[in-house]
Amino acid sequence: MYLSLNSISALEHHDTLQSHAEILELLQKWPKDFNQKNIPAVCELFSPSLVASYPGAPDRDFEGMCQKLSESLSDPNKRYRYQLPEIEQIITVEDLAIVRLIWTLEVFDKNFELIERVKEKGLDVFCKQKDQGWKIIISYAYTLASSFPQQQ
């Protein structure tokens, strides 16, 4: 069978669009799972080979990341809520994808009073796994801005 270069280019474009859509769906699902305290689903976004780096903290592997998220979500004195991420860019090349994004995390006290809003800029590297699902293998994030409500 003969495929023209235009046909190959169209197939590659379709694969790229499909990959972008799959990753976008995962990134939109994640804060919903987080906000519902669904730890297994929250951890599902990450690869077992994860390396996550945040300023001022040691790098975390999959177990460390899931443990930290679980501890945060079970803290009786604070409630955490992520908004949908602002996706700045998605680049895909075969089974790798790079995503530039901004997360907004809201922190509430046990009385549901907002005590902090944090914007985190991140760069996540996804790898398409053998099961065909995308998972984060490298995650870098840093705080862009942190705001505190006016004290009364």
TrEMBL record:
Q: Which InterPro entries match?
A: DUF4440 (IPR027843), NTF2-like_dom_sf (IPR032710)
Quote the Pfam families the UniProt record gives. DUF4440
From what superkingdom does this record's organism come?
Bacteria
- Where is each DUF4440 domain found? 23-136
Protein's recorded name? DUF4440 domain-containing protein
Species source reads: Waddlia chondrophila 2032/99
